[in-house]
Write the C-alpha cells for this entry.
Amino acid sequence: MTTTISRPTVSSDRWDPRRIPGGGGLALGVAVAALILVWVGSDGYRQTLVISAATYALIALGMYVPYLMAGSLSMAYSAYAGIGGYAVGLISARTGLPLVVAWIAGPIVAALVAVVLGMVTRRLSGFFLAAVTLLFGMAFTAFLIDAESVSGGSGGLGNLRPLNLLGWTPSHYHVVVGSAVVVCVIAFLLDRLRLSPWGVVVRTMRDAPRAVEAAGVRVPVLNIVALALGAMIAAVGGGLFTYAAGSITPDTFTLNIVFLAIFMPLIGGAGTPWGAVAGAVIAVELTLNFPAVQTSGTLLLAVGVLVIMLVAPKGVVGYADKLRTRLWALLRKERDRG
Amino acid sequence: MARWVAGMATLALAVTACGGTGDDADSPTDGSAKGAPIIIGMDEDSTGPGASYSTIAGKTIRLAVQDINDKGGVLGRPLRLVIENDESDPTKVPAVLQKLHSQGAKALFLQSGSAAVMQAKSTLTQLGLPAIAPTGVTATLVEPPDNELIYMLANTTTDWAEVYCGAFKAANINTLGILTDDTTTIAALNKALLGGMSCVKITATEKGAANASDLSAQVARLKDANPDAVLVTSVGGAFEVLAQNTLAAQLKDKLRFSLASIGNQPSSWKLANPGALEGLIFMGSINQDNPRTKALTELLKKANGPDYEVTAYDAEGWDAVQLLKLAIEKAGGPDDPKKLNEAIQSISGYQASFGQGNFTLSFSATKHLGADGPCGLSLIEFGADNRPKGPWATFQPPCSS
Amino acid sequence: MAEETLLVGRGLTKRYGGVTALEGVDFELRAGEILGLVGPNGAGKTTLVDLISGAQAATTGELVLRGSKLTGPASRRARAGLARTFQYPQLALELSVRDNLLLGWAARRHASLWQMIVGAAAGALRPRVPADQAAVRTLAEELGIEGLDRAAGDLTLGEQRLVEVGRALGQDPLVLLLDEPFAGSDARGVTGIAEVIHTVQRRGHAVILVDHNVDLVARLVDRVMLLDRGRVVFDGDPRECLASPQMQSVYFGSDADTDTDSGAGSPETQAEVEDVRS
Amino acid sequence: MTDLQLWLSAMEMGCFFGMLALAYHLIYVGAGFFNFAIGPYAMMGGLCTSWLVITYDLGVWPAAAIGVAATIALAAATELGVVRPVQKRGGGELPALVAVAAVLFAIQQFAGYLFGYPTLPGQSLASFAPVPVGDITVQPSSLLLIVVAVLTFVATAAWIRFSRTGRLLRAVGDSNQAAALLGLPVNRIRLIAFVVAGFVAALAGLLFAPKAGVNSLSGLHWSLSGFLAVVVGGTGSVWAPLLGGMLLGLVEVFLPYYFGGQSHVYGMLLIALLFFAFKPQGLFVRKVRA
C-alpha cells in the first residue's frame, strides 16, 4: 500500500488520449456504450432498457453536480425530470413549435424552478435540505394532479408528435443511439467540468465553504448555479424518457427514482460522473433485467448500496481503477524482473 | 466488518434464491396440451403499491391458464404465461412490455394495478400487440390516443354513473358528498364518473392522501356540508377502510356508497372497526345467481380453500383468459397480431362469469369496452359482520332478461 | 516606499449575548507593513481576523480599505483585496494540492453570477488553463511544496498550512490575514510562509500575522499589536513589546481565563460553550 | 374548532408524531444527526407484529414483543453496521445522510419482501369496548396510543434526569468532543440512544397501526412527519418533541378542515420552509453568511 511506484515519464509529444482531461473516461464510456448498442441491436426490449438506463443516468448526472461536487443533497429531482417530461408533452400537445424546443424550454424552466427553490432553501443543508426538497417533490406531484388545465391532470399527456430534425425523423433505434450519445457527452463534459477551475471551486465548497467564501466566491450563489445546472440535466433525461415512452403522467417520476439516483453514483463510484452512469446501468440491469430476482431486484440494489458504501466507498469504477493500478504495477514488476 | 459483509452476502443470496424459486412455483404447467406453447405476457404489479389488488386477478389468471392447459390447451397448444413486474412504476412499464414482447408474447394482460398502466398505451402501439386490461375500469384507458389494441371487460365509470343515478333517485338522494383519495388512478376515474352524474348535486368533494392516517378533517367538512349521502371513491385498501371507519363514527345516519374496490378486497374488510362497514353499498359485480359465477366460485374455493371470497377481480381475470382463448381460436393461431386483434373485435355475446345471469361481453373496432349494458353491475350492501350481505333491496340496475 | 494607509479599523467590537469577545479595537495598516497580532488564547485574535475578513459581522465599528468602506460578506471583501487563512486549515481534503492551490485563481474568475455561469460552460470546454497550471507550479516552487498530485488530506498539518497560505497568495491580496500559520509547521514550512510574507511586502501590500508565539512573530513583523481579553493593550515595535510591562502582565501576570480555546471566537463553538455553561 | 372528534384525531396524530420525534431527538442527542430511518423503524414495529399475528396466528402480545425486539435489533444494526463505520471516515454530515437514506430504502424493500406489500391491519393491544366521550366514541387503540405516548415521555424524561446512563446521554449531547475528552463512553451511549430510539419508534408504529393499517412503504411519510415535529419542537428538551408533534397533529387535522383537499401537502412544505427559514440557529443549519 505504501510503496509508491515511480512511473516512467511519458515524454513523447504524440497525441495521447490520456492527456486530454476526461479523455480516459470518455474512451471507456464510449467503448462500453458501443458494446451495449451492439448487444441491443434491433431488440425492442433491450432498446427500452437503454432508454431507461439513459434516463436514470441523466437524473443521476443531474444530481452529481450539486450532490457529489458541491455536497448538498437536494431530492427534488423527480420534479425536475417531470418538468423536462411535461415540456415535451405540452409542446407536443399544445403548440405547433418543433418538438426540439422542448429540450431547450424544459431544462430552462427546470433551472428556474431550481433557482427559486434554491433561493428559498439557501440557508439549509444536509437533513433539512433533504426533507424540504422531498416535500417539494410531493407537492409538485399534487400540483400536477390538481392543475388539470396545465398538466392534463392525472391522465397526463400522451400521443406525442415524432421528432423532426430539419426534415429527418429519427427511428426508435436512432433515439436509442442518440440517448447513449447524449449521456456520454454529458458525462464527458461533467467530468471535464469537475477538473476545471469551476469544478475546483464547487468541490472545495463541499468540504471548505468558508475558504471559498474567503476567496471571493459567494457560496450560496454558486450553490444555486450548481443546482440549476443539475436540474437542467435531469430535465433533459425526463424529456428523453417521455419522448421514448410516448406519454407522461404525474406519477411517471416518483421518489423511488430520486432514491435510486442518490445510490447510483455510490454504486458506480462517486469519484467521476461516469460512476453515476455505471450505477444507472447496474440499477436498470438489477431492477429490470435480472432474471433470478424479478421481484426483489430493488431489494438487492438496496442491500448492494449498503455493502458498497461500507466495503468499497469508491464504488465499482473506483474499485476497478484500483484493481487496474495494481495490475499494472504487478505487470511492470514482472517486466522489470524479466 | 468481514463477518458483517459475509452476513449481508448470505442474506442477498438467500433473497435471490427465494425470489427465483418463488416465481417458478407459481407458473402454470403445460398440462395435457402438447405442441408449441402460445406465449402470453402479463404485466403484474407483484411488489409495488398496486400489488394488493393486482395480484388477486393475477392468481386467477394463472389458474385459468392451468385450467385451459389441463383441458387440452388452445388449438391443442398449451398457453404459457410470462410474467413481469412493473412495481406500479410508470418508468418501468415500457421496459416491462418490451421484455414480454421479446420473450415471444403474442398478447398481453395488463394487470398492473395503478395508473402506471396508462404509460403502456403508446408502447403497445409501438409493439403492435393486442392487450387486455382485465380489471381496468378507467374509460380513458380505452379511449384515443393509442387505443387500437387495448381492451377492458368490466363496465366502466360511465355505466357506474348511470347505476348510481338510478340508486340516488330510488333512495331520494338529491345532494351528494364525495370523499376521494389523491391517486392519479382515482383522479382520472372521478373525472369520468362525477362528470356523468348530473342527477345529483355534489355539495362537497373532499380529498385525502392515499396513505393518510387520518380523515376526520375531511369527514368533518362533509358533515358541515350535510349531503344526503356520501360516495367514497378510492383505489381501496387502507384509505377506503379509514374513510369508512371515520364515516361510520362521525356520519352514522348517512347512506354511504363506494366503488367496486372495497368489495373486491376481502383482505381489507378485516381492517375496518367492528360494524364500520354495515350499510355500505358498493358497486359489485359478483352475483351468485349467475351460473358461471357459481361454477367459478366452486373452482376457486377448491383451489384456494373453502374460506375464499370470490371477487370481481377473480371473475374478470378468468374471463380475460377465456376471451383470449376464443380470439386465438378465431384467428386460427396466435402469430398474426393483426388478425388476433381483429378476432378480439369480432367476439360478441360472450357470457361473462360476473354480473347478472344474462350479462354478456362484446367487442368491435369501436367498442373496446366489453360490457353490454349495466347488467354487469350490482349494488351490494355490507352487513354488520363487515362482509357483503347481498344485493341492496332499494335499487338494482335494470336488466332485460 | 510610499507609506500609504491601506486598512483602517475603528472601534471594532464583537459581543455574543453577554460575552464581549472584542472591545473597541482601533488599528491602522500601511502598505508594505507586516503587523503581528499577538495575545494569549481567548484574547480575541481570531475574532478580529473574522471581523476584518467578514466571516463574522462586527457588533459595532467600521473598516476602511484604501479609502472605501469595507462591508458585506466575506466574498465581497475578498474581491476588494482581502485574503486569509484559517486557524484550522480549510482545505478540500479530497482534492489534490494542485487544485487547492488553484482555488485562488479559480475563485477570482467566478466572482459574479454571470462569471459562474460562463465559467461552467468554459470549464467543460477547456478544463485546464495552461496559464493557471504554470502559475500554480511557480507558486509551489516558490513555497517549496512538492507532490502536487497528493490529496490535501494526506498532508501533515504543517504542509496543509503552507498550501493554505499559498492559496491565499494566489488571490494576490492587498491585505493577507494569516491566522496562526506556524502551528504544526516544520522548518521548511516556516521558511515558505516567511517567503510568502515577504512576497506580499515586496508587492507593496500588507500582512496581518496572528500567533500566540510572540518571539516568533517579533522576528518577522514590523509592528505588534498585543490583545488581551478583547482589548489592545500594546501597539508598537515588536522588541519594545517583548520587554513591555503589558506583555509581562498578559502572559505571566494573571493566569486566569486562559482555559477556553481561542477557537471560542467562532459562533458555533461559542454557542457550544454557552450550552455547556447553562 | 369545536368538533371533539377533530381534537381527538389531532391528539392521536400528535402523540404518534411526538413519539417519532422523541426517537429522532434521542439519536440526535446521542449521535448528533437526524436518523431518517425512524419512520421505517416504526413501520417495522407495526408491520412485523401484524404479520406474525395474521400469518402464524400468534397472540398479539408475543407478536408485539418480537416486533419490538426486531426493531431494536434493526436500530442497533443501523448504528453498528452502517452509521458508525461511515461516520468514522469523516466528511461532514452528507455521508451519514446518504447512509441513513440507504438504510431507509433497504428497510422498506426488505419489509416488503418479508411481510408482503399489501397493507396489513394494525393489531390492537387493548381489547376493551370503545369509550364514549361526549358525542363521540374513542376506540381502545386510540386511548392506548395517547396513554402510552404520555407514559413514554414521562419515562424518558425520568430516565434522562435520574439514571446514570440518561445523564451521560445528556452530557454527550451537550458536547460530543468534550465528552470524548472526559473519557465518557461515547460509543456505548450512542448505541444506547439508538436502542432506546428504536424501542420508542417501534412502540409508536405498533400503537398507531390500528388506525389506518401499515404497509412496507409507510415509513418514508412517517419519517418526514417525525422530522418536521422534531424541528418544530426543537431539540432543547425531552418534552419539545411532544409539543412539536402536537402542533403538527393540529396542522394535519385542521388545515384540511379549513382549506380542504390537498392543503396539508402544500401546508407541510410551507411549514417546513417557514420553520427552517425563521427558526434561528441552534439547529443544524449551515452558517454561511449571505
Observations:
- Chain D has one domain: 3-122+134-278.
- The two ends of chain D are 42 Å apart (CA to CA).
- Confidence is low (pLDDT under 50) at residues 280-290 of chain D.
